[in-house]
Amino acid sequence: MYRHKAYPSSKQIGKAADALVNQHPCLTERGSQTGCEAWKNSLRFKMGNCRTKLSRAGIKDVAANARRCSRSNPTGTPSRTNIKRPRRGEIQFLPNYPCGENKDTLETRRMEILEEFKTMPVDRDIVLVHQHMQRTFPLRREEIVTLAPPIAELKDRWPGLFSEAQLYGEFHRITNQSLQYSFFAALDKNTTQLLKLYKERKTGAFGEKMADLLMAYEEQDKNDISATKTAALAGLPLYLKEDSSVIFKSCKEEQFETFQVGAVALLAVVAEEDTAAGISFQPLHVSVILEDQVVMTLKSWTDALVVLFSLVYALNLSYPAQLSGFFEVIQVFLLNLDDTRMQLKPKLQAIKNQLV
To answer: Domain check: are 345 and 216 in the same one?
Structure first.
């Protein structure tokens, strides 16, 4: 069980108990409705004991949650302070260093990556960069999770995290999932139903913004798949009654340098004021902004949104408070990451029922 997840949910523990009695019928409990109720409790305690032993042995992904305040350790960190338990379906949240590596050898590899990114992209050794990014992943996660350095410092130390190929590779290392493939496959599957739901919401302030968005979408070329995906994603926050204007912004090219944005934003540069709900279907380019600085620039709005979601995982960021439901829908329903929670927020449960 630990190989799959250090902190399994009750539902996952139940599946393991059910598999246990199916594989070994002699262990089935008599008088139990499911035949494995006691095994669920037993496995839960065994997992706790396993994590305790591993944390004492120095395994980082569970040691980060150990040494909490208790009777035997009164000077420890309070039990509910800064717990680094993965909550978004991360498979490798805080891994140990690879066999044969230590902090000094990984730092040498980091410096080699840095030297490669000082060269022109055409002269860059992509294979070497990928191999070193793979090997230095534990060092990078240790810095990001435990120290939480500012974005500017991360850009200087780990420039590979801010290139598309390596960023998607980092997301795969954390979640064991191909972000682009999973995201767009799920979006294609649900786009028609989402647009149908949007057309039914026409009341209130969010309904007016939704109507403006759909009107702008109707003016687009229906053979343009990118426009359809943009409409499906841009309408989701409005359907959830979240104010997307705080994150999704647009401006003209001459205003780009002086335009005021928040700590997190997708800023679309447009030729004309043809935006709806802060979204442009045909932007000149879209910039991803974190901590008030441009970190990456993409050609389309949907690609920029995927990059922003990937950066949230790679940099261990919280979801923007104004769009927490929007990002949770992407996580739980589009990507099936950590979809085993027993209770969902009412609005998330509602949209899940409507999509299904």
So the answer is: yes
